[in-house]
Design goal:
368 residues; alpha/beta; Rossmann fold; Dehydroquinate synthase-like, alpha domain; 2 domains; seven-stranded mixed beta sheet; 13 helices; 11 strands; 46% helix; globular; binds nicotinamide-adenine-dinucleotide; binds the ligand O=C(O)C(=O)C[C@@H](O)[C@H](O)[C@H](O)COP(=O)(O)O; binds zinc ion; metal ion binding; zinc; nucleotide-binding; metal-binding; DHQ_synth_AroB
Length: 368
C-alpha cells in the first residue's frame, strides 16, 4: 500500500492509498479515536454507499458513529452548514485532542476541515476522501473553506488533517461524471511541471476512469506525492510555489461563480475548462504553441470534460466573467495573478495580466 508522507513542519502526517481502508477505518485510525462515540461528517450519497461499512468497522472496536449527514453538492459549503456542523460538534462535547472524521468528497472535506480549524480554536480531523478529486487533491494540504455569495472559498483557514485514508474501493461507487471531474485535477499536475505525466494521462486516463485499479492507484499516489512536495515547501501559499496548484482555477472559479456553484458545472469541470483557457491564453501571448494548447484541449475533451466555454451556454460578457476574478485570493494590491504556461509542464505565476486583457480574451472565447 503506498503511504505518502506530508512533511509539514512540526505536524507531519500520512496519506495512505489502497483498498479496504474504509472497511478497516477503526483499525487505521487507531488511538486517534479516543472515545466510544466518533463524530463523522458526510453527505447523503456517501452515507448511503459507505455508512454501513463505517458502522461495522467502528463496532469491531466497540465504538459507534455520531453521524452528521449533509445534503450533497457544492452549495453545502455554506455558512449555514458550517454553523450546524460546529453546533453539532459542541453538542457532542468534542475536545481539542479529539479527532473528527470527514467522510466524503472535497465539499465535505473543506467544510469539516474548516469546522475543525475553529472548534475550541482547532481540533484534529481525519480526511477519508471518497471522490477522486478529494483523493488526488482536496484531502491533502490543509486548505479548508466555504463559499459565500461574493465568491468561491472566500472564507476559510489552513488546517492540516492528522491522517488521510484514500480508499480506492470508494471510487467504485462514484458516478462517471464525478470521476471525470476529479481527473481534471490529476491532469493539472502534469500541466504544472511534468510533461511526462501529462503523456501518461493521455495514454492511461481513459483506462483509469473506466476502472483500471493499477492506473487508479498510480494516479492517486502520484498526485498526492506531487501535491505534498509543493505544500511542504509553501504551506501558506506565500512564496508563489503553492499558487501553481491554482492552475486553471482563476478562470475556473469565475465560471463556477457564474453558474451559481451548482451541478451545472462541477469544480473539476471548471478546472478542466480553466486549464484549457489558461493554455489558450498562454498561446495568445506567444508563450506556448497553438498546437500544444490544442493538445491540452484535445485530452480534456477526450475524457468527456468541457473544453470549450461556448458549450456552457452562458449569457454573459467577457468583462462580466472577468469581473469575478477581482475576488480571487491571489489578487495582490488590486493586481490579478495568473498561472500561465510556457508549454505543457511549464506553469508559472505572473501578475502582469490586466483585467482589460483577460476581458478581451474571454470575449473572443465566448463569441468564438
Ligand atoms: N481544499 C483543497 O485543497 C481543494 C482542492 C480541490 C477542490 N476542493 C474543493 O472540493 C470540492 C469538490 O470536491 P468533489 O469533486 O469531491 O465534490 P463533492 O464533495 O461534491 O463530491 C462529488 C459528488 O460525489 C458524491 N460522492 C463522493 N464520493 C462518493 C462515493 N464514493 N460514492 C458515491 N458518491 C460519492 C458526493 O455525494 C457528491 O454528490 C469543491 O468545493 C472544491 O472547491 C478543495
Ligand atoms: O491546494 C491548493 O493550494 C490548491 O489550489 C488546490 C485547488 O485544486 C483547490 O481547488 C483549492 O481549494 C483552490 O484554492 P483557492 O485558494 O483558490 O480557493
Ligand atoms: Zn481545485
Amino acid at each position: 500500500m503506498p503511504i505518502i508522507p506530508v512533511d509539514i513542519a512540526g505536524r507531519p502526517y500520512e496519506v495512505r492509498v489502497g483498498a479496504g481502508l474504509i472497511a478497516r477505518l477503526a483499525e487505521e485510525a487507531g488511538a486517534r479515536l479516543r472515545k466510544p462515540v466518533v463524530p463523522i461528517i458526510t453527505d447523503v450519497n456517501v452515507h448511503k454507499a459507505w455508512g454501513a461499512a463505517v458502522d461495522a468497522s467502528l463496532a469491531t472496536a466497540g465504538k459507534s458513529a455520531a453521524w452528521h449527514i449533509l445534503p450533497a453538492g457544492e452549495s453545502t459549503k455554506s455558512w449555514a452548514n458550517l454553523v450546524a456542523v460546529v453546533d453539532g460538534l459542541l453538542a457532542l462535547e468534542v475536545e481539542r485532542g479529539d479527532h473528527i472524521i470527514a467522510l466524503g468528497g472535497g465539499v465535505i472535506g473543506d467544510l469539516t476541515g474548516f469546522a475543525a480549524s475553529m472548534l475550541k480554536r482547532g481540533c484534529h480531523f481525519i480526511q477519508v476522501p471518497t471522490s477522486l478529486l478529494a483523493q488526488v487533491d482536496s484531502s491533502v494540504g490543509g486548505k479548508t473553506a466555504i463559499n459565500t455569495p461574493a465568491g468561491k472559498n472566500l472564507v476559510g483557514a489552513f488546517h492540516q488533517p492528522s491522517l488521510v485514508l484514500a480508499d480506492l474501493d470508494a471510487l467504485d461507487t462514484l458516478p462517471r461524471r464525478e470521476l471525470a471531474a476529479g481527473y481534471a485535477e490529476v491532469v493539472k499536475y502534469g500541466l504544472i511541471n511534468d510533461p511526462e505525466f501529462f503523456a501518461w494521462c493521455e495514454a492511461n486516463g481513459e483506462a483509469m476512469l473506466s476502472g483500471d485499479r493499477a492506473a487508479r492507484e498510480y494516479a492517486v499516489a502520484y498526485s498526492v506525492a506531487a501535491k505534498a512536495r509543493i505544500v511542504a515547501q509553501d504551506e501558506f501559499e506565500t512564496t508563489g510555489l503553492r499558487a501553481l496548484l491554482n492552475l486553471g482555477h482563476t478562470f475556473g472559479h469565475a465560471l463556477e461563480a457564474e453558474t451559481g456553484f451548482s451541478d451545472r458545472l462541477l469544480h473539476g469541470e471548471a478546472v478542466a475548462l480553466g486549464c484549457v483557457l489558461a493554455a489558450r491564453f498562454s498561446a495568445r501571448r506567444g508563450l506556448m504553441g497553438a498546437d500544444e494548447a490544442a493538445r491540452v484541449a484535445a485530452h480534456i475533451a477526450a475524457v468527456g470534460l468541457p473544453a470549450d466555454v461556448r458549450s456552457l451556454g452562458l449569457n454573459v460578457s467577457g468583462a462580466q466573467l472577468a469581473a469575478h476574478m477581482l475576488h480571487d485570493k491571489k489578487v495582490d494590491a488590486g493586481r490579478l495573478a495568473f498561472l500561465l504556461m510556457r508549454g505543457i509542464g511549464g506553469t508559472f505565476l505572473t501578475k502582469d495580466v490586466t483585467l482589460e486583457e483577460v476581458s478581451a480574451f474571454l470575449t473572443e472565447e465566448l463569441e468564438g
